[in-house]
Design a protein that fits this description.
about 300 residues; alpha/beta; Rossmann fold; 2 domains; seven-stranded mixed beta sheet; 12 helices; 9 strands; about 45% helix; ATP-binding; nucleotide-binding; P-loop_NTPase; ATP-binding protein
Length: about 300
């Protein structure tokens, strides 16, 4: 192997920051001479293809394996699994259905069922499905999840490029129905569009702010797309502080026209009881609410495949 073969990370600026084409030309081999490391058998493994135009001038084209490596690094930086490297919105196993909740301009009246019962007591006892029907109109989507999330992502990409306010997204439902996977799929879409994306568990995200490892304004404004997983499941010894910071994060991102995606095993009634009117106003006023329902548990299904792979 040629000792001058270029390093991927040099190209994308992670080691030496070398990104100039002349440096790539000096180090890259002719792809036909020694094809060994390129998974597509196109380049020499450097990610570079040196070619000449009609005038004899040399120029460099990037191989698909180079683009794959750049995306891998972006996924790592975004804290998103490399499983999403080659995934796109065409994925659909036909088991997940989505209902879209549209907030009512005026919510229906809460029914007080017991004598001398306070409104808060009635709210606590109210069935979560009745709460949803009071606050939202519900549309059961006939499109596949892939079609829905593709449309959502493409429209938001268009809006942020026009410096217009995008729509945030709250995915909720039971465990194992693909909320986190779909959120990461959206994140991968924006990474491929050269947008800054970050995925974090909500509790860890808040703790990093609480422990002063990061500045709330800086971390809230740094990413074009912020994915907060396990929203509502966050626990903090200072719950008042946590709610204040969560409200601050959502407001900062809304004002800066940045996309926030949250996933949760909770439901709108639980959100209302925990977060109160101020945060609920932000959730209802700036987020799409998608309820995901799946026939079976996706995690268990994947584990069944793992059993088969191991021959167990």
């Amino acid at each position: 192997m040629n000792e001058h073969k270029i390093n991927f990370l040099d190209v994308i600026g992670k080691n030496t920051g070398k990104t100039k084409e002349d440096e790539a030309i000096e180090k890259a081999q002719h792809p036909e001479e020694n094809i060994t490391d390129c998974p597509y058998n196109v380049c020499d493994g450097s990610g570079m293809i040196r070619q000449k135009n009609e005038n004899g001038a040399t120029y460099v084209n990037f191989c698909k394996c180079y683009n794959d490596t750049v995306l891998k690094q972006k996924l790592v930086n975004a804290n998103i699994s490399l499983d999403f490297l080659n995934e796109d919105f065409s994925f659909d196993d036909g088991k997940t259905k989505i209902s879209i909740l549209k907030p009512k301009l005026v919510e229906d009246e809460l029914k007080i069922k017991k004598k001398n019962q306070t409104k808060q007591e009635a709210l606590i006892e109210e069935d979560p499905n009745l709460f949803i029907k009071r606050h939202f109109s519900i549309k059961e989507e006939t499109r596949t999840p892939g079609e829905i999330f593709k449309s959502y992502s493409e429209k938001n990409f268009e809006l942020i490029n026009q410096n217009k306010k995008p729509a945030n997204l709250l995915l909720f439902g039971d465990s194992g129905n693909g909320k986190t996977s779909f959120a990461c799929l959206i994140g991968s879409f924006f990474l491929k569009k050269n947008k800054k994306v970050y995925f974090s568990n909500t509790e860890k995200f808040l703790n990093s702010i609480y422990d002063k490892k990061v500045d709330v304004k800086e971390i809230s404004s740094k990413y074009d797309v912020l994915i907060l997983d396990e929203f509502f499941a966050e626990y903090h010894t200072d719950s008042k502080w946590a709610k204040t910071k969560l409200k601050e994060i959502l407001k900062i991102r809304d004002e800066l026209k940045l996309i926030t995606i949250c996933t949760s095993n909770g439901n709108p009634k639980e959100f209302s009881l925990l977060y109160g009117q101020a945060i609920m106003s932000l959730l209802k006023g700036t987020f799409f609410h998608f309820y995901l329902e799946r026939d079976g548990d996706g995690r268990i299904e994947k584990m069944q495949n793992t059993f088969e792979e191991f021959g167990f």
